[in-house]
Amino acid sequence: MAGPRVGIITGSRSDLPVIEKTTKQLEEFGIAYEVTVASAHRTPKKVEHYAAQAENNYDLIIAAAGMAAALPGVVAAQTTLPVIGIPIHSKALGGQDALFAIVQMPAGIPVATVAIDGARNAAILAAQILALKYPKIKDALKKFKASLAKG
Question: Which of 21, 59, 83, 109 has the fewest CB neighbours in a 10 Å radius?
Answer without folding.
Answer: 109
